[in-house]
Amino acid sequence: MIREPLIFEISGKGKQAFSLPPLDVPQKKNLLSDVPLRRNIEGFPQVSEVEVVRHFTRLSKTNYCVDEGFYPLGSCTMKYNPKINEKVASRPEFGGTHPFSPSPLVQGNLEILKRTEELLAEITGMEAISLQPSAGAHGELLGMMLIRARQEDKGDPRKIVLIPDSAHGTNPSSAHVCGYKVHEIKSNEDGKVDLEDLSQNMNEDVAGLMITNPNTLGIFESDIKKICEIVHSKGGYVYMDGANMNALLGICKPGDMNVDIIHLNLHKTFSTPHGGGGPGSGPLGVTQELEPYLPSPVIQRKGRKLFWDFDRPQSIGKIRSFYGNFLVVIKALAYILILGHDGLKAVSEGAVLNSNFVRKNLEDIYEVKYKTPTLHECVFSDKYQKDRGVSNIDIAKRLLDYSVHSPTVSFPLVVHGALMTEPTETESRRDLDAFIQAMRKIDQEAKENSDLLKQAPHIPYVRRLDETRAARKPVLRWKKESQET
Ligand SMILES: *Cc1c(COP(=O)(O)O)cnc(C)c1O
After folding, report:
1. Both 319 and 377 in a single domain?
2. What CATH number does the domain containing 347 carry?
3. Residue 80: count of CB within 10 angstroms of its CB
């Protein structure tokens, strides 16, 4: 395989990407001498235009992306996002708006934001939405801050937040950052919250519960109303992590389940490509009771006019600059309006159907620990392959040889050797079949030639990286094959 050199290695003194005709006027020097430009950067690569273009094009081809193939990364909802939404969001009128523009001049933009809030309120069944948080975890933190503010107003912020053992890692982190102790609630043998354990641990020291529904096993918490009742009866609030809303759109509303707060991930459910830390949006929905605490400002209507309302005495303040990631919101609005109620419902039905198609075609050879029906994702494990010395990591790495991104591995922690698989609604029957076939082939290989798996991947640009060091101390220069990192 040809290894792409670093751009510094392509560099050669005096090469550049442009050539200008000779001067036909007297030359003047140092015209920009008082401008703080960066000059003479030591070791800065000198390359021609064609070298730059080819170098980066070749590098880009070594990247796997959702526009290229299937990306079954569980809990991430890595679906294909229609390009029309990007097109709408990239209109210069939107990108060119200065965030400090006075509201009378940007009524259209405010209408977009307000309209999105109203539609998200409708979809979730919540009273009010804030678009300020930049991501799911940011929404969680805001949710915890609202619970703290409300509990404080009632006389005691309380000390503990309950979180089921199947929760996403960001849940305990958010509660912790907000100054709460986290107490873990057990799952029962169905993979749902154990009501017994919850009742026993719910008391007046507990500020609230954070629950993901459907949970990270892809299982719907069918006792959610009972769960809310238990938490509410002791004065707690229920925070629903709504990152898995891709399973529920148009089918049921968290507001009807009696949860008090929910965050959405627009960059998962509502059409923004994600990964690599790119712009996200984690809108928060709340009940009437918690609405006064929402971050400031909020958008209000007065007649036909929209304005920023900063007069919010109970607000927890601001949690980020301006009002969230505007262009991500535009994409979500375009997506919702194009699909409408029936279309959104079809999204979730398709996601659930595809996931169950994969599950049914693989559960005879990959263990599914909990027998409970699942919605949009399902967690396989390496239990049946383990006795041949093959682990979930080997399976995930071998999938790369079959041109499929690997599922989420070793999460949730309640399933040992987990392979958490979420196909999403945008995969065709053909792609699902190819994935199933690859997974079945890998199981076969585990029986016949487990070394092949343990040394996988064989085809991609890099083999097995040191998962800790590769991120912290990347070695970018190609040396001998044996020294790859
Ligand atoms: C993705 C995810 C989060 C965190 O969302 P970010 O936008 O990555 O911060 C939280 N909970 C669940 C269940 C998720 O899948």
Report:
1. no
2. 3.90.1150.10
3. 15
Report which of 264, 234, 270, 271 is spatially closest to residue 142, judged by C-alpha positions. 264
- Ligand 1 midpoint to CA 243 (Å): 6
- Residues at CB less than 6 angstroms from ligand 1: 75, 135-137, 168, 170, 212, 216, 241, 243-244, 265, 280, 282
CA of 322 to the centre of ligand 1 (A): 22
Nearest CA to ligand 1 atom 7: 136
Number of domains in the chain: 2
Same domain as 320, residue 435: no
Query: Where residue 481 falls among pLDDT bands split at 50, 70, 90?
Result: low
Closest C-alpha among 355, 262, 274 to residue 74? 355
Number of C-alpha atoms within 13 angstroms, CB side, residue 317? 4
332-375 pLDDT per residue, tens: 999 999 999 999 999 999 999 999 999 999 999 999 999 999 99
Which of 272, 307, 337 is a domain's end point? 337
Given 281, 314, 337, the domain boundary residue is 337
Predicted confidence (pLDDT) per residue in 311-326, tens digit: 999 999 999 989 999 9
Compute the distance between CA of residue 125 and CA of residue 118 in angstroms, rounded to an integer: 10
326 lies in the same domain as 346: no
Instruction: Please identify, by atom number, the ligand 1 atom nearest to the C-alpha of residue 212.
Output: 13
